[in-house]
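Consider the tokenized backbone below.
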């Protein structure tokens, strides 16, 4: 989808010795995988999202899709149902009755039959070998709570690049340094038994942050979080500042962390330092001068996030 970006990522991984990372192997038996898709008013992207899952080279008889809708008012469900009925893949369409993202995630777990659950956001698209790479990474491993992919971006306008690099660079650095990856549920694959052992998702989290909360519980319980550089998912990043503000506001109001004013501001400053590091990484490794604007993007995002979080305290 973005050949220049893919080439730069490959060069980055080769330079850091990560192209020889754990290879996906041929599966003798394909375990059943549930693809969980939580959606709301996603008519502009849901077709591409589901089509990418359907095009997957994973055995369709070993796939199921559980789609949970959050009371969409657009054509999301119409598009999804028409496509899934012709897909040849077992599917269920459920409704969370507006109870929020934590509840929707748990509905996927409760209605899944798969050994593994692969989480795909409605504003994303998979490469054809994505699910196979993720399952292959997990097979034969023990004590892994989640495998996080590389999240790539599709659009080349400035705002999309700023948001895209902010997601991509921390994941690349984490993979190279063998540290806890940049956390997002999108594209991650989790053993169902791990989610059950943790008691599932926090049902009180209605907005964003349900992924960070359960990842934190995974690590506290001794499970490892890994980055699979061979699994790459394309995220449709925001195209305009209005959508950036809307997203930052949603995250701020739905954040599950302690909401004291001082802690919110402290976290914001910590995040701003991260954006400065990302700026240097983009310029150094990708030779993209757009990176100069990343600290400004961080100021805009963090300011709106903090204001939204403080308003919800």
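A designed sequence for it:
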């Amino acid at each position: 989808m973005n050949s220049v970006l893919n080439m730069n990522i490959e060069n980055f991984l080769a330079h850091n010795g990560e192209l020889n990372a754990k290879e996906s192997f041929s599966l003798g038996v394909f375990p059943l995988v549930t693809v969980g898709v939580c959606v709301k008013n996603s008519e502009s992207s849901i077709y591409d999202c589901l089509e990418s899952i359907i095009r997957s080279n994973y055995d369709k008889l070993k796939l199921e899709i559980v789609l949970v809708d959050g009371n969409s008012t657009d054509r999301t469900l119409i598009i999804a149902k028409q496509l899934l009925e012709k897909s040849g893949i077992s599917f269920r369409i459920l409704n969370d009755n507006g109870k929020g993202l934590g509840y929707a995630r748990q509905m996927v777990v409760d209605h899944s039959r798969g050994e593994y659950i692969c989480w795909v956001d409605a504003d994303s698209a998979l490469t054809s070998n994505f699910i196979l790479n993720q399952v292959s990474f997990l097979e034969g491993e023990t004590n892994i709570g989640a495998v996080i992919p590389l999240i790539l971006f599709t659009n080349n306008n400035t705002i999309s690049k700023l948001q895209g690099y902010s997601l991509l660079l921390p994941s690349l650095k984490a993979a190279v340094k063998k540290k806890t990856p940049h956390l997002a549920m999108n594209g991650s694959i989790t053993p169902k038994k791990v989610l059950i052992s943790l008691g599932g998702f926090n049902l009180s989290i209605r907005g964003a942050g349900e992924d960070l909360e359960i990842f934190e519980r995974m690590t506290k319980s001794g499970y490892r979080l890994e980055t699979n550089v061979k699994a790459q998912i394309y995220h449709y990043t925001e195209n305009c500042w209005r959508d950036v503000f809307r997203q930052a506001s949603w995250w701020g109001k739905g954040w599950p962390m302690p909401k004291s004013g001082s802690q919110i501001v402290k976290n914001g400053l910590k995040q701003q330092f991260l954006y400065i590091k990302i700026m240097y990484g983009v310029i150094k490794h990708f030779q993209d001068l757009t990176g100069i604007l990343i600290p400004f993007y961080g100021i805009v995002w963090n300011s709106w996030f903090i204001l939204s979080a403080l308003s919800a305290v």
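The chain is about 45% helix and 15% strand.
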